[in-house]
Amino acid sequence: GNVVNPLEVIEGGANKKAKPAYGADVLRLWAASVDFSGDVSIGDGIIKQVADSYRKLRNTVRYIIGNLHDYDKEKHAVEVKDLPAVDRYILARLSETMKEVEQAYDKYDFANAVQALTRFCVSDLSNFYLDTAKDRLYIPELAHPRRRSCQTVLKVILDSLTRALAPILPHLAEDLHLNLPEQQREPGSSSSSSVFENRWSVPEFARDEATDADIGLARLLRNDVNKVLEAARQAKTLGASSEAEVLLYCGDGAGQVRESLERLAESQNEVDNLQYLLLVSGVRFVDSEQGISGTPHQSEGDTETGVKVGVQRYVGVRCERCWNHFPETEFGISKEFPDACQRCVAALQAQNGPAIEENSDAVAAHAA
Hints:
The chain is mainly alpha-helical and about 375 residues long. Helices cover about 50% and strands about 5% of the residues. It is built from 14 helices and 6 strands. It has helices at about 5-10, 25-35, 45-65, 75, 85-105, 110-140, 145-165, 170-180, 210-235, 255-265, 275-280, 290-295, 340-350, 360-365, and strands at about 245-250, 280-285, 295-300, 310-315, 315-320, 325. It has a 4-stranded mixed β-sheet with strand order 2-1-4-3. The protein has a two-stranded antiparallel sheet with strand order 5-6. Strand 5 and strand 6 form a beta hairpin. Helix 5 (about 85-105) runs antiparallel to helix 6 (about 110-140), helix 5 (about 85-105) runs parallel beside helix 7 and helix 6 runs antiparallel to helix 7.
């Protein structure tokens, strides 16, 4: 008849290529995401779409737990007041999302809970926060403050997502719970316990209007810049975004926008800096539209921020470790690693000890 066998969705059909095994969590995710107040549809195409959504959720939390292997909350946690602006921004977004999920669960509105969690994992985390966090998770030494601050945030996010996903995706939530390192478990929790023994809680992180405005504007600017970067890639002008320098013209009536972006551009913590939020090697403001007219690629038509964007190749040297581009004076600090930028040399020194010999001439040139 016109039915779908649940066991066939979970275990797969006779032809595994045509009807693969999706597992019970995918079927549960479909059941939670449909609007049961109207006609409910199901079929191979719909289940495939649900499986894609499930993979996005799973890949997000897998990436997070993979970057917490050396984190110990008791030793490495950073106070919220000491976190960079982008960290405080994402924690506020997490708090808002968890409140939305809690309200949806209270009303048995599972579809809205799924939408809120998917939106947070895909839009806020994968497309923004985790994308910009790669630099500080992989480049500095393990104990660097900007890496520990990111891990502090990731641990809070992971704990919240594990709780929020458990009612809908219990197998995924149990996998997360069972694979947590012992030093990251809650008091009284162990690898033999269940995720459902943890108490439900919603983290409370207040939204700061100034931070929200600055980072929110940066997210919109990323969309504008990425469109121009994609055009540069298509034209073979650039490969990776780290090869680019971005020129910005804010217009005569956009003083507040420029002020906000300049505040980020002047940040010294290598986290909130506009360069690292845009994943490029340089950002420069120009005072007229003619300032970007000479760039090979420019924004066309209206932009989300109202800022005109120009993209050109960054004139500098690529670091062979982090692949970012810097002025030539950033290099030659270490005789052992002449092709590494200053921050990569610092990371290598922390990893290998002070035996790395410094190039005194290069150090002097950089200081000058």
